[in-house]
Design a protein that fits this description.
The chain is of the alpha+beta class. Helices cover 43% and strands 12% of the residues. The chain has 14 helices and seven strands. Strand 2 and strand 3 form a beta hairpin.
């Protein structure tokens, strides 16, 4: 057998090929691929991803199942429904997302509470700009702009899904593109709070006394900039000690990675988790979903970090560790905005610009450009 020959796994139609050059943990890296027949009966191969990127056989199997379901729908002659209701679109998207292993319970809960009564039975084509604007304004009377944005975004994604799957023919009235009349509320809730070195040390010491797990998640976020939801997805198999990399599940279920110091990887290995087990777990041994734990709030309250603070942007929360990671890097003067964007894994540079004012001499350097031009 050559290294390019597909090797069977325990899952039907799921194989891997050994790379002739790429190494992972001292061995040839595995590239997972799936085999299937398309709607015309033609054999197809599709690459799913590399073992070094956190892809495993069970994940490739789920991808294959998703592909087969889509082919089955086409073969059955599924006809797009021009009268589809929003509720049907949401159900289709929810079924797909659940099968893909996406955690969308918060989104479906918001839909049931704030959107279902108004939109569930309404045909997509019947939704008007006036209906959307009126409902948005009504929700803004009781919800924050960010929560309202989440409500509408979930429905928009659901309709985009059925359009992409050719289950619905028509436009998406929830679209917020440049030419759309409907505009989403723009929340101004970006945190501006970050820890001083003294505050960070005090909080880490307090957390260590109350919960070693929350302490370790905190130091991981501070040193890598990882979000809490990303930290919750790390399994024993996701630690690459040879390359100092941690793999995890990012936004939308995509596989991502961050570089981590050796001491962090050693700390995570110290939990002794099996490859399929999550590093950080709830008391029942399950995956963390809803928060880091009550000990976090008790530690913050004990230190009085949020005493008298009414502006949510100034309040300390677990995400403050990530904000501190970025702020300290910017203050060091040793990273550019582009480098900081890559470290933070921001999709757009404007998300990184909020840290520009922290770069030493940022304003003065810009002003001196004019002087240098005149002198030349």
């Amino acid at each position: 057998m050559t290294k390019r020959t597909p090797v069977k796994t325990k899952f039907r139609g799921v194989y891997y090929r050994l790379s002739p050059s790429k190494k992972f943990q001292g061995k040839p890296d595995k590239c997972y691929v799936v085999w299937y027949q398309d709607e015309h009966g033609k054999p197809r191969w599709q690459t799913i991803g590399w073992h070094s990127e956190g892809i495993r056989a069970n994940y490739a199997n789920q991808k294959r199942i998703s592909i087969l379901k889509k082919i089955e729908s086409k073969s059955a002659g599924a006809v797009a429904n021009p009268d589809m209701t929003i509720g049907t679109a949401v159900n289709n998207y929810t079924d797909w997302a659940t099968n893909e292993g996406k955690h969308i319970t918060p989104e479906t809960d918001r839909y049931k509470l704030h959107m279902r009564a108004m939109f569930d039975a309404m045909p997509i084509k019947s939704v008007t700009h006036q209906i959307l604007t009126t409902h948005k304004n009504n929700l803004l009377k009781k919800l924050s702009p960010a929560s309202v944005q989440h409500c509408f975004s979930f429905v928009r994604r659901s309709i985009n899904y059925v359009i992409g799957e050719e289950l619905y023919t028509g436009s998406n009235p929830f679209s917020t593109s440049r030419n759309s009349r409907f505009k989403m509320p723009k929340p101004d809730n970006q945190s501006v709070r970050f820890f001083s070195p003294d505050e960070a040390k005090k909080l880490l010491q307090e957390l260590k006394k109350r919960s070693l797990q929350i302490h370790d998640m905190s130091i991981l976020s501070l040193k890598t900039g990882m979000r809490a939801k990303e930290i919750f997805t790390i399994k024993g198999q996701d630690l690459d000690t040879n390359s100092d990399i941690i793999h995890f599940e990012g936004k939308g279920g995509s596989r991502q990675k961050v570089y981590a110091p050796t001491d962090i990887l050693t700390m995570l290995q110290g939990y002794g988790r099996a490859p399929h087990e999550y590093i950080f777990q709830s008391k029942s041994g399950d995956r963390l979903k809803w928060g880091v734990g009550a000990s976090w709030k008790r530690a913050v309250d004990h230190l009085g970090f949020n005493d008298g603070i009414t502006d949510n942007r100034q309040r300390v929360r677990f995400h403050t560790w990530r904000h501190t990671f970025a702020s300290w890097l910017a203050q060091s003067g040793q990273v550019t905005l582009q480098e900081l964007k890559e470290q933070m894994r921001h999709e757009r540079i404007d998300m990184t610009l909020r840290y520009a004012h922290l770069i030493p001499g940022h304003q003065k350097k810009s002003l001196s450009i004019i002087d240098r031009v005149l002198q030349s």
